[in-house]
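User: I'm new to structure prediction. If I give you an amino acid sequence, what do you actually give back? Let's try with this one:
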Amino acid sequence: DIAWLRSWTLPAGIRASLETGVAVDTFRIRQDSNYSGTESEVTPRAGLTLRWPLIKTEKSGATQILEPVAMIGWVGGASPDVPNDQSTAVEFDEGNLLSLSRFPASDRRERGLSLAYGASWTREDPDGWSARLTLGHIVRDEDQPDFTSTSGLDGLNSNLLVAGQFRTASGISLIGRALVDTGLTISKAEARAAWITPKMGLGASYIWLEDDPEEFRTDSVSEWSIDGSYRISRHWTGTANWRYDINARRSTEAGLGMQYRNECVDVNLSLSRRFTSSSIVDPSTDIGITVGLRGFSAQGFNNSYTRTCRN
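Assistant: Good question. You get back a string of structure tokens that encode the predicted 3D arrangement of the chain. For your 311 residues, that looks like this:
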């Protein structure tokens, strides 16, 4: 793959970015009579992105940023006849709204002409809290048959992406994301609430997924999960987690753990219980221990474990 990128600042503060490139993929398939032995494809691409960040400062010192965005893109070539090995699970979120291909691997690529557009609003308050809301949508001139029905990306028009987050200086955060179709039906949704302090952390998550046989999901998924941690001492931290299936009205997983950490090693002890069963999986209880070596990175995220010398 080779790419060329360039950005400009236009009048009125509009930011323009141009991307061009070409990818060459070759696949060799063995022990599968449904496909030929070798497939190759050349994929040229080009995309122009426009952003217009509008900033307002309030008398209180708070800052608001409203940023409309749009990207027109084109991807050429034709999809090779290869099995879908790595792009079976596709996510549509804020991170890939302005991408020329939203598949996670090169065995599948989006083709044709597309227009992605949306807007984001952010507010930063001097008291330490912040809020953000993002909307996004995609329009194409060609159908994309390799996307599943619940990915939010199949057809000529994608689902509407709605995402938001709220954070406070005290460590409380609320994050949510949903894909909404033209009939105001939600195909995927997730939400998480968390409270993190230097001593402890608590979190709760909810996920909703429509049934989709193409994603190996014959029934809809509606689950709660709760997790937490408590720092018992400088080196020891206790953890716990629990998952509950709302549709089946039963617990699916639960676990307890203990972690020891210093400047040299991470040692994790865990006890987990799986309550669900299927044709190939039975309920089980697992006990695990993992040891990880630290100190190979230049900087860690938490230096409170590092020993210090005092005069």
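You can read the tokens as a compact description of the fold. Here is one thing that stands out. DSSP finds no helices and 16 strands in the chain.
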